[in-house]
Design a protein that fits this description.
Radius of gyration: 26 Å
Helix content: 25-40%
Number of strands: 6
Distance between the termini: 81 Å
Structural class: alpha+beta
Order of helices and strands: HEEHHHEHEHEEH
Strand order of the largest sheet: 4-3-5-6
Oligomer: single chain
Number of helices: 7
């Protein structure tokens, strides 16, 4: 194998040539889309007021030093189809024999500004099962949601008589699939 020896002058010339090439790099403009009033639109097409609102948004990240348990229910959402909520429904029907409706409980994580929360709240109020609503707009509610890996509202966590989580639901349709066997 032949060893290639270069002088410092040659190396410096290569470095300068590389710097010159990098200085002449021109990328393409990046189009940023964001949701502002219910749909996604290019940020550059927003009016002055909406643009200012966007500039005031704060980005957040979950601190790396805090542990959050992410459950199967928080994986890629396929919840548009209630038929896909069969696993939790099976657990609920198995729990029914042991007095699920009397001994089980639920927790509803909601927000005051959540448009999907009122129907879920009304559904939960009709059940004879005990439960509580947790407002994630409060510091305590947000901490509780983070502790349980809740990333959206509404989220209903259903616990069986032994206190184990048996289902997570995000809509009335999913609640119907879970509680059909209990309320039937």
């Amino acid at each position: 194998m032949t060893e290639l020896k270069r002088t410092i002058k040659e190396i410096d010339a290569d470095i300068e040539a590389t710097r010159a090439a990098l200085a002449d790099v021109h990328g393409s403009e990046t189009e940023v889309y964001a949701r502002i009033v219910g749909y996604y639109r290019a940020v550059r097409n927003w009016n002055k007021g909406k643009r200012e609102e966007y500039d005031h948004r704060k980005m957040f990240a979950v601190p790396e030093n805090e542990a959050y348990e992410i459950t199967e229910a928080d994986s890629a959402c396929e919840c548009a189809s209630p038929a896909r909520v069969t696993h939790p429904a099976a657990k609920v029907s198995a729990s029914r024999a042991a007095g699920f409706e009397k001994e089980g409980r639920w927790e509803l994580f909601s927000r005051k500004t959540c448009p999907n929360c009122p129907p879920v709240q009304a559904y939960m109020a009709k059940l004879s099962m005990r439960g509580k609503t947790i407002d994630v707009d409060t510091e305590e509610g947000l901490a509780e949601a983070a502790k349980k890996g809740v990333f959206a509202s509404p989220t209903v966590i259903v616990y069986d008589e032994s206190g184990e989580e048996s289902a997570r639901c995000h809509s009335v349709e999913e609640l119907d699939a879970v509680f059909a066997s209990v309320t039937a």
